[in-house]
Backbone:
């Protein structure tokens, strides 16, 4: 969907809870999928326990697979951010790439971008609309 | 300037919510976003002054210090009056600088100032 | 602001919380704004046992709109034929929510 300025409108989605223990990640992914389908730009921020959503090799037997859903969203153009300090706290960061000046996390889905809290604030500033999932 | 409201609805420490919200709140204020924190429901416990060394006692950072830092950066903190009175909390127990508003004024604040509203 | 959207994905933890969640809706309607409540996931359970002057019953009485996710209702054995008729049952609630939320002058609060 294109605003009067000619730019795509941006929907920002913040997830604050881990997958599988509740449905918030499912809801967030489905809203993101619909928004992308309607031509909106979608940015997702995984905050707090939500960073477990980007763990590789998730294999829920009967549940909606959040890792696969995020991968589909990434493939369709959603930008997916993860909270760097939340990821460090939870053991996702294994090495710091001195050359690229970025942290590497071999257990994280490859398209996820780790950012500091400034990245969160930048997203808030860019977003035309913001929705929270699992934070209340 | 974008105007953000963060409504805190949980007491401090039991969940990451309060810490995470105030962390983003302070960063937002320092990067030019207008932020109002609303303490409502169980969230009014975040407004109590006099936390005794939470880092030393329970290995968690002081949310009272976070509130003070947030206000020092220019953030506004509002407490819902009815949530205080139903819990027997007096305004004298609150961190200096917090504003007590009745629920009608709090909802007006949400409707008038919340370009984006985040409930934590 | 002219429209407020409440996205409810869980039941309230207490009567106090229920009233606080909905207070912004009542105030918006009092001020002549539009208010729409979206019930998604476990939030669809807000639609059961409505009373005219309480919670969603009062929202409907006050001119607010309530929309509920059909698949979440069906999954929880909520019979559509027994639903309050003014609650709109929506097949693709997430899609409708996106369209609605991206409208100009719209605020979104999720619980």
Residues:
């Amino acid at each position: 969907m294109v605003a009067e300025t000619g730019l795509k409108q941006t929907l920002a989605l913040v997830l604050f809870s881990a997958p599988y223990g509740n449905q918030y990640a499912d809801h967030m992914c489905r809203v993101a999928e619909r928004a992308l389908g309607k031509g909106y730009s979608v940015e997702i921020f995984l905050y707090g326990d939500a960073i477990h959503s980007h763990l590789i090799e998730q294999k829920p037997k009967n549940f909606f697979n959040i890792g696969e859903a995020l991968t589909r969203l990434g493939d369709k153009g959603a930008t997916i951010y993860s909270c760097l300090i939340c990821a460090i706290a939870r053991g996702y960061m294994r090495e710091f790439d001195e050359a690229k000046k970025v942290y590497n996390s071999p257990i994280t889905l490859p398209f996820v971008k780790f950012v500091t809290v400034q990245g969160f604030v930048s997203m808030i500033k860019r977003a035309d609309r913001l929705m929270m999932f699992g934070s209340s | 300037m974008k105007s953000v409201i963060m409504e805190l609805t949980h007491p401090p420490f039991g969940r990451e919510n309060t810490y995470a919200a105030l962390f983003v709140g302070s960063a937002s204020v320092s990067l030019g976003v207008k932020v109002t924190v609303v303490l409502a429901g169980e969230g009014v416990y975040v407004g109590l002054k006099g936390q005794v060394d939470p880092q030393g006692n329970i290995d968690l950072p002081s949310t009272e210090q976070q509130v003070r830092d947030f206000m020092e950066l220019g953030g506004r903190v509002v407490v819902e009056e009815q949530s205080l009175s139903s819990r027997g909390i007096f305004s004298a127990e609150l961190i200096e600088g917090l504003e007590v508003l009745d629920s009608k004024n709090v909802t007006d604040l949400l409707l008038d100032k919340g370009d984006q509203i985040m409930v934590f | 602001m002219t429209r407020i959207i409440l996205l409810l994905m869980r039941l309230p933890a207490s009567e106090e919380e229920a009233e606080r969640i909905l207070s912004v809706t009542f105030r918006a309607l009092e001020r002549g704004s539009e208010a729409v409540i979206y019930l998604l996931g476990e939030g669809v359970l807000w639609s059961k046992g409505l009373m005219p002057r309480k919670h969603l019953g009062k929202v409907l009485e006050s001119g607010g709109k309530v929309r509920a996710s059909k698949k979440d209702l069906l999954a929880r054995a909520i019979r559509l034929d027994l639903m309050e008729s003014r609650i709109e049952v929506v097949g693709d609630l997430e899609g409708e929510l996106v369209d609605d939320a991206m409208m100009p002058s719209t605020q979104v609060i999720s619980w």
User: Anything to note?
Assistant: The two ends of chain B are 22 Å apart (CA to CA). The interface with chain A takes residues 2, 4, 9, 16-17, 20-21, 23-24, 27-28, 31-33, 116, 118-120 of chain B (CB under 8 Å).
